[in-house]
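Try this one yourself first.
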């Protein structure tokens, strides 16, 4: 039996999912998003990198970026459960991030979910999700927008503009 390295699994819908190794474009996209989102959000919001969010009893994904309210000590009793923005950088995980994680985040009523699509070099913005049924795969159908060379405004930072080019490697 082979042991998995620490930090390489996520709890998704009651199942442990092995995370794929990060290639250079993926890690670069995470760092770019970290810089852009820290600049976009005012104090009182934390931009967390690959740390768990507690969405329900069966799911503690570790999104590439999660923006939450409060300070690190606010989450000593439990992981954050209501991120104001979740961002995933996706290349080989694009289908998983769109379908499985997208459904999971919609069910948890995450109002702002972004995918930095490294395959097509665009930002996919998922918003206005309705509460999804209990089944993980039967998630809501959020409104999607693909952003190429323009700007996007986080719903929780309405006065901020994030250039899509700043998120793409």
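Now uncover the answer:
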């Amino acid at each position: 039996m082979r042991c998995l390295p620490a930090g390489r699994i996520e709890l998704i819908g009651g199942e442990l999912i092995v995370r794929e190794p990060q290639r250079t474009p993926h890690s670069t996209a995470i760092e770019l998003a970290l810089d852009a989102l820290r600049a976009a959000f005012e104090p009182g919001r934390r931009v967390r990198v690959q740390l768990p969010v507690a969405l329900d009893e069966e799911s503690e994904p570790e999104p590439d970026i999660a923006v939450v309210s409060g300070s690190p000590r606010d989450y000593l009793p439990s992981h954050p459960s209501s991120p104001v923005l979740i961002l995933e950088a996706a290349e080989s995980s694009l289908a998983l991030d769109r379908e499985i994680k997208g459904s999971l985040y919609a069910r948890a009523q995450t109002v702002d979910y972004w995918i930095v699509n490294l395959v097509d070099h665009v930002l996919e913005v998922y918003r206005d999700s309705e509460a999804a049924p209990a089944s993980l795969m039967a998630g809501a159908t959020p409104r999607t927008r693909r952003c190429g060379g323009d700007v996007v405004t986080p719903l929780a930072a309405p006065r901020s503009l994030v250039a899509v080019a700043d998120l793409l490697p």
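Discussion: The chain has one domain: 13-166. Residues 13-166 form a domain with the tt1808, chain A fold (CATH 3.90.1570.10).
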